[in-house]
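Input record, target 12 of the design panel.
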């Protein structure tokens, strides 16, 4: 599987909101070193949504982890007053804000009553009311163009018989056959009636209303049991475009069948064009902006040749053009296309945009960040310089952060690799430093010019941190991604080692104090590296992969790995899986390694770390396996997040700093 490593909301007066806008501001004086506990105190900004009239912006703020979760809440920016205020205050999470077509109400998903349901509030505040109900989670929803209905995605609720069996512990489950998948439902707001439109055999992943209101465009599959990419694009017609008569509810017409994974379907205002982010050919991940014209079976790749960078998000403009954010190495940037599909110039901005929204007037709101400036909200007219309007992470101004040095080096075959280096604050420029090579997840991920807390903590403890975007990383073009197909642990590993050699040759890295670490694919690379060399004195692997065959057989969504290696049930493919699996070479390992794993991880399951640990024990290698209950691939519990940081620091200190101990 692809491994890339929010009742009763209160109306807050704008004057009061000013006082709650930022985290506790830094006090004047000397900057402080970052600590593990402080590094968790970071807010995230996502899902920016302008009201149709352009007067307000709703967005989601993810709070720092507290207890067992990171709560999400909806905030509002008022364009006329320039004020920001928190809009929802659920004890749990409120997210996915969506404006009614008349801009008078804001609907959103919330798990305040355990199940995720659609709620709505007046735009000027008040009590939230539930629009959907049932003992199942709503996955997504969208207003109809006339504001009279809401289409939403949710599975069937458990029947009374199923609930009784569950209560009686008579709850054996038949895989695939008894799974309940998201169906398309239509809620009529006047009556409160909700009706399922698609059959249970279908799994609906996306639903987008056509601007005419005659139906919805769906991403769907009638083979949800398949481990391959079987989703296609359909049009579900609700009424006739000429007579306005209702059609049968099973009126689904296939529109397109893209190869490989795809998503983020959006339809132009005039209804004549549709776009989505899809694959250049068949995978491994969506990369390019694909355009389809109404009635045409052929599609046009807008960004493949002209930009050749992964499209992270995009929006239609009123004139039929498109604005997108793409990854460009460590950075991200805006690119734009005219209504004719031609690339046009976009002014450069001083931060890295990610989540963004565009009003009908062309005003852009985006979340921007750098490696030393956490996410904040910016407003931009696409002509003058953007203006920062939030201070949600001002507390970080009190900490000393290391600014990365971005540079490039030539790998073993002449391929140019971009990397970043964090040096300890106060480094004298002469001493040789202990260096930790951190490897990103993916492999189709990438290190970015954004706050990276692990590295900042290591730099605060006197380590240099090496971040290579090795072959297979995104942000350097489709062909660069494809370079490690069927070659994990080959060229990618050699890219890491050439980068380490470069730091040693420059006199910066102490060759006797080298370390490696990472999460997911980064964990895999750490495991692989210590089976191939003894140069690393210590390693950390988080949620890694030790056996690619059993990984394929137990992970959720194996089609990603299949793109790289095929399937391990075919004799001619087995060698590829084995040759790239660290467990085959465990007899070579001498390096102490800390293994970290969540026991609810379905991306890289617990068994991968257990296989690694058992093999290392057999050969007497110094190792520790730490298992975190309830944690999925990305941890969310506060105490676990803190424990993980402290264990890593202690492990590196123990093996790279003689006689030192990690402070808690």
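The sequence produced for target 12 reads:
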């Amino acid at each position: 599987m692809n491994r890339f490593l929010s009742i009763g909301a209160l109306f807050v007066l704008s004057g009061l909101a000013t006082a709650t806008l930022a985290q506790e501001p830094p006090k004047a004086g000397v900057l402080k070193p970052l600590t593990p506990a402080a590094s968790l105190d970071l807010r995230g900004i996502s899902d920016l949504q302008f009201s149709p009239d352009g007067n307000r912006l709703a967005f989601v703020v993810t709070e720092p982890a507290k207890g067992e979760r990171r709560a999400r809440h909806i905030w509002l920016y008022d364009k006329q007053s320039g004020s920001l205020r928190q809009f929802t205050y659920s004890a749990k999470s409120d997210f996915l804000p969506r404006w009614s077509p008349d801009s008078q109400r804001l609907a959103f998903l919330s798990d305040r009553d355990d199940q995720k349901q659609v709620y709505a509030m007046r735009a000027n505040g008040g009590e939230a009311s539930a629009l959907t109900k049932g003992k199942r989670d709503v996955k997504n929803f969208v207003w109809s163009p006339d504001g009279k209905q809401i289409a939403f995605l949710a599975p069937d609720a458990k029947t009374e018989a199923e609930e009784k069996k569950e209560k009686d512990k008579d709850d054996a489950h038949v895989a695939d056959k008894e799974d309940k998948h998201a169906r398309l439902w239509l809620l009529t707001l006047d009556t409160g009636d909700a009706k399922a439109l698609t059959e249970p055999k279908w799994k609906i992943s996306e639903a987008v209303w056509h601007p005419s209101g005659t139906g919805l465009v769906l991403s769907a599959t009638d083979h949800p049991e398949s481990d391959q990419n079987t989703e296609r694009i359909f049009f579900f017609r609700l009424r006739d475009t000429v007579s306005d008569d209702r059609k049968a509810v099973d009126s689904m017409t296939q529109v397109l069948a893209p190869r490989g994974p795809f998503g983020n379907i959006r339809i132009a205002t005039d209804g004549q064009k549709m776009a989505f982010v899809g694959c250049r050919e068949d995978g491994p991940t969506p990369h390019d902006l694909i355009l389809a014209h109404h009635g045409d079976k052929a599609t046009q790749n807008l960004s493949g040749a002209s930009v050749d960078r992964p499209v992270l998000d995009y929006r239609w403009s009123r004139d039929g053009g498109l604005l997108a954010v793409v990854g460009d190495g460590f950075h991200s940037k805006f690119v734009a296309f005219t209504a004719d599909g031609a690339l046009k110039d976009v002014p450069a901005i001083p931060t890295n945009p990610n989540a963004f929204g565009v009003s009908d007037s062309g005003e852009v709101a985006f979340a921007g960040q750098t490696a030393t400036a956490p996410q904040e909200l910016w407003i931009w007219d696409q002509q003058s310089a953007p203006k920062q309007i939030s201070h949600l992470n001002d507390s970080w101004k009190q900490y000393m952060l290391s600014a990365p040095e971005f540079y490039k080096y030539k790998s073993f075959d002449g391929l140019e690799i971009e990397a970043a280096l964090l040096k300890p604050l106060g480094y004298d420029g002469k001493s040789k430093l202990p260096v930790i090579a951190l490897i990103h997840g993916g492999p189709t991920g990438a290190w970015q010019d954004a706050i990276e807390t692990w590295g900042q903590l290591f730099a605060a403890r006197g380590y240099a941190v090496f971040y290579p975007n090795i072959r297979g990383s995104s942000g350097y073009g489709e062909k660069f991604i494809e370079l490690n197909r069927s070659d994990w642990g080959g060229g990618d590993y050699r890219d890491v080692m050439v980068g380490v050699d470069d730091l040693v040759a420059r006199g910066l890295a102490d060759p006797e104090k080298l370390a490696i670490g990472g999460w997911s694919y980064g964990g895999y690379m750490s495991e692989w590296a210590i089976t191939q060399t003894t140069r690393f004195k210590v390693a950390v692997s988080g949620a890694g992969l030790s056996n690619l065959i059993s990984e394929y057989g137990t992970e959720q969504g194996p089609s990603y790995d299949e793109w790289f290696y095929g399937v391990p049930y075919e004799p001619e493919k087995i060698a590829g899986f084995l040759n790239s699996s660290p467990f085959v070479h465990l007899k070579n390992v001498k390096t102490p390694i800390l293994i970290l794993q969540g026991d609810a991880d379905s991306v890289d399951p617990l068994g991968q770390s257990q296989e690694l640990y058992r093999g290392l024990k057999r050969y007497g290698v110094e190792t520790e396996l730490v298992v975190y209950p309830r944690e999925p691939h990305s941890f969310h519990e506060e105490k676990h997040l803190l424990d993980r940081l402290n264990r890593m620091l202690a492990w590196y200190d123990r093996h790279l700093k003689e006689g030192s101990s990690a402070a808690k």
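The chain has twelve helices and 38 strands.
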